[in-house]
């Protein structure tokens, strides 16, 4: 089974056991619906703890989630550094949308099939999602993840064909 990360626990918030999470998901309101199941992943022991969402709100870079499992801020403090994860389900995706985890590690090629680099990270900027591409003997470059630059994404082959314009590389 494959999991997706929704964020990392940074602290407790308030006195009811609410958890403050540095968010790495664009779908917090969907993932943290009341009654939804998520998992707390302990990076040290590799243990998964299943939790049920009681309430949710978002502010800035943070998600604030109250789980039915925890009612004490002192217990929540022991969860600092845990990741929040969900089971990966490709049925959650619309056509021509992708999980960031599927884009990482893809080989970037031009229209002639020349390898330009590997997707190192998927970054969110106010204007658009952007791929950070690592090259072997040069500095990283960025490709906006929009149709003007992205010609074809093949997750199975782990390749992304891009339209190279002057100044991109």
Please compute the radius of gyration using only Cα atoms.
19 Å
Measured distance between first and last alpha carbons: 37 Å
Name the quaternary structure.
Answer: single chain
Instruction: State the total count of DSSP E strands.
Output: 12
What is the H/E string? EEHEEEHEHEEEEEE
Shape designation: elongated
The CATH topology name of the largest domain reads Elongation Factor Tu (Ef-tu), domain 3
Please name the CATH architecture of the largest domain: Beta Barrel
Q: Please identify the structural class as seen in this structure.
A: mainly beta
By CATH reckoning, the class of the largest domain would read: Mainly Beta
Structure description:
With 169 residues, this protein is mostly beta strands. It has two domains: 87 residues, RimM (Elongation Factor Tu (Ef-tu), domain 3), CATH 2.40.30.60; 63 residues, SH3 type barrels. It is built from three helices and twelve strands. The chain has a six-stranded antiparallel beta barrel with strand order 1-2-5-4-3-6. A six-stranded mixed β-sheet has the order 10-9-8-7-12-11. Strand 11 and strand 12 form a beta hairpin. The protein is elongated. The two termini are 37 Å apart. The model has no long low-confidence stretch (mean pLDDT 92).
């Amino acid at each position: 089974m494959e999991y997706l990360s929704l964020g990392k626990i940074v602290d407790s918030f308030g006195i009811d056991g609410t958890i403050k999470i540095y968010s790495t998901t664009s779908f917090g309101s969907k993932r943290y619906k009341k009654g939804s199941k998520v998992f707390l992943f302990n990076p040290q022991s590799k243990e998964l703890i299943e939790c049920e969402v009681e309430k949710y709100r978002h502010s800035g870079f943070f998600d604030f989630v109250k789980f039915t499992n925890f009612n004490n801020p002192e217990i929540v403090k022991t969860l600092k550094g845990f990741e929040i994860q969900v089971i990966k389900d490709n049925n959650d995706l619309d056509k021509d949308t992708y999980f960031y985890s599927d884009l990482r590690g893809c080989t970037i090629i031009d229209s002639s099939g020349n390898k330009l680099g590997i997707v190192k990270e998927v970054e969110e900027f106010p204007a658009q999602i952007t791929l950070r591409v690592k090259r072997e003997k040069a500095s990283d470059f960025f490709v906006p993840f929009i149709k003007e630059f992205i010609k074809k994404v093949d997750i199975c082959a782990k390749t992304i064909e891009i339209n190279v314009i002057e100044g991109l590389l």
